[in-house]
Design a protein that fits this description.
With about 200 residues, this protein is of the alpha+beta class. About 25% of the residues lie in helices and about 25% in strands. It has a single domain, classed as Barwin-like endoglucanases, CATH 2.40.40. It has three helices and eight strands. The protein is globular. Bound molecules: 2-acetamido-2-deoxy-beta-D-glucopyranose (NAG) (2 copies). One 2-acetamido-2-deoxy-beta-D-glucopyranose binds near residues 135, 142 and 197.
Length: about 200
């Protein structure tokens, strides 16, 4: 009787262990992926608020995707994720030839290797006219920071009803895209990494 009971006990133990194990593995995976995403945005850089877009006027963006849409809400960011030797960013195509940039009131030709950075990375202009090294698919290009990609203001007439920039964006000229061996129909949105280039 006792033997049977202990056999029953150990069987249930093994059974329940084997039931728990896969669950634990699942939980670990979930925690792992949550940690991954908090590393880049959630933990280190939270939205400072949201802009709700109401009946936006005529949008000046070249790319429709950058226009505010009626009834949509957009996060705004004062911060950007920390800059490392391999900072993850989303790169978008941008023109610098239609308005003066904010580092110096200058119009750039789109063949020039220039970019704008999200507000946190622009860092009140401390990266102005400095080079950053942008890498994707094993190719790299050095580009000059000439403008801010505004992560705080958006969806107003002053900014042409464009939505605010994300926390981790680079807007790059055609020249930059070309140096990364991107041809016309590939110039749009791309995941890249970047780093500061020391001026020494
Ligand atoms: C994008 O632009 C086209 C042409 O200018 C316009 O007809 C369309 O409504 C726009 N789409 C959005 C989502 O704004
Ligand atoms: C740019 O980054 C790439 C990839 O990390 C590296 O191989 C290259 O040497 C860097 N270029 C400069 C000028 O720092």
């Amino acid at each position: 009787m006792q033997k049977q009971f202990s056999l029953f006990l150990s069987t249930t133990l093994i059974l329940s262990l084997s039931l728990i194990r896969p669950n634990q593995a699942k939980i670990r995976i979930v925690i792992g992926s949550v940690t991954d995403s908090t590393d880049t945005t959630t933990n280190t850089c939270q939205p400072s608020g949201y802009i709700s877009s109401r009946k936006p006027g005529s949008c000046t963006a070249q790319n429709n995707d950058s226009c505010c849409k009626d009834g949509q809400s957009y996060p705004k960011y004062q911060c950007s994720p920390p800059v490392t030797a391999k900072t993850d960013a989303i790169m978008y195509i941008n023109t610098f030839s239609d308005a003066p940039s904010s580092c110096e009131p200058k119009i750039y030709n789109d063949d020039e290797l220039v970019v704008s950075l999200s507000t946190g990375w622009y860092d009140k202009g401390t990266r102005c006219l400095k080079s950053i090294n942008i890498t994707t698919n094993g190719n790299s290009v050095l580009a000059k920071v000439v403008d801010q990609c505004d992560s705080i203001n958006g969806c107003t007439a002053e900014v042409g009803y464009e939505k605010p920039c994300g926390a981790n964006e680079i807007r790059a000229s055609r020249g930059v895209w070309s140096k990364l061996y991107m041809v016309n129909d590939q110039m749009g949105t791309l995941e890249v990494t970047w780093s500061d280039v020391s001026s020494s």
